[in-house]
Amino acid sequence: MLVSAKEMLQKAKAGKYAVGQFNINNLEWTKAILLTAQELKSPVILGVSEGAGKYMTGYKTVVGMVNGMMEELNITVPVALHLDHGSYEGCMKCIEAGFSSIMFDGSHFPIDENVEKTTELVKICAEKGMSLEAEVGSIGGEEDGVIGKGECADPQECKKIADLGVTMLAAGIGNIHGKYPANWEGLSFETLQAVSELTGDMPLVLHGGTGIPEDQIKKAISLGVAKINVNTECQLSFAAATRKYIEEGKDLQGKGFDPRKLLAPGTEAIKATVKEKMELFGSIGKAE
Ligand code: 13P
């Protein structure tokens, strides 16, 4: 059964490790992430962007697939199904469809409007036992057409949003979605420290997990990050493994064109990436 991300993230914050949010795109992605989490006894969050939700034909399909898969695969570790960077309307649809967690990305609204909409969602999520992520200070890069500049959040605004009763808070600290440019300045630990001090026990969320050097990930966790989002890295490893399979001409040998064979190396590659991240984030064995 899907669970809210609240308990797993509060435990992670207290235990100084982070739970990975891995974004899903289809059946292979979902299967690879769930099986890895179960094998490694790690809690996990399945992220679904609005674009990926649409791609999978809608949120109800996603809920049906994930619930069915958890039952058929006997997944017993805590799993949250989470809307990533949701609009207000997207949040409503996911609440209705049976997600266990949502992110309302009000970072592009003036702070008062972000507060107003977040407040409404805090109330609904509390009634439904769902977790809610809010965002302050947009995350840079491009994700499903949403473009952010990678600004640093204002710590006072973070406190204002955290005090509304959200479950976890994404604060921009110079992180961006996708690959980091060569001239990237790195995470702003000064901002993270200030946000952390003002928001106390609130689990903080680090978006744009792809390509952040290991030492910066570890430092971010030590300063209160308890959820780290990874999307692009799984896409890159899936694509590289699939490319290798085709370039080696394996699709032309025997029944190598069968999608169950063609997509297998990519699926294994996602598993390896998820495992590597869970090791780095320290979440292995935390679901025992
Ligand atoms: P990456 O694609 O950079 O890993 O970012 C994922 C993310 O933050 C999803 O919200």
Write a structural description:
The chain has an eight-stranded parallel β-barrel, surrounded by nine helices. The model has no long low-confidence stretch (mean pLDDT 95). The chain is globular and about 60 Å long. It has one domain (6-281): Alpha-Beta Barrel (TIM Barrel). The relative contact order is 0.17. Helix 7 runs parallel beside helix 8 (189-199) and helix 10 (232-247) runs antiparallel to helix 12 (264-281). It is of the alpha/beta class and 288 residues long. The chain has helices spanning 6-15, 27-39, 50-55, 59-72, 88-97, 111-128, 155-162, 189-199, 214-222, 232-247, 259-262, 264-281; strands spanning 19-23, 44-49, 79-86, 101-104, 131-136, 141-143, 146-148, 168-171, 204-206, 225-230. The structure holds 1,3-dihydroxyacetonephosphate (13P). 1,3-dihydroxyacetonephosphate binds next to strand 3, strand 10 and helix 10.
Which features would summarize this protein structure in a list?
single chain, 288 residues, alpha/beta, TIM Barrel, two-stranded antiparallel ribbon, 48% helix, 17% strand, globular, binds 1,3-dihydroxyacetonephosphate
The string of secondary-structure elements, in order, is HEHEHHEHEHEEEHEHEHEHHH
Spatial ordering of strands, largest sheet: 1-2-3-4-5-8-9-10
Largest sheet: 8 strands, parallel, barrel
**Head-to-tail CA distance between termini:** 16 Å
Set out the fold topology.
Layout: H1 6-15, E1 19-23, H2 27-39, E2 44-49, H3 50-55, H4 59-72, E3 79-86, H5 88-97, E4 101-104, H6 111-128, E5 131-136, E6 141-143, E7 146-148, H7 155-162, E8 168-171, H8 189-199, E9 204-206, H9 214-222, E10 225-230, H10 232-247, H11 259-262, H12 264-281
Parallel strand pairs: 1-2, 1-10, 2-3, 3-4, 4-5, 5-8, 8-9, 9-10
Antiparallel strand pairs: 6-7
Helix pairs in contact: 2-4, 2-12, 7-8, 10-12
The chain binds 1,3-dihydroxyacetonephosphate.
1,3-dihydroxyacetonephosphate binds at residues 23, 47, 84-85, 177-178, 207-210, 229-233.
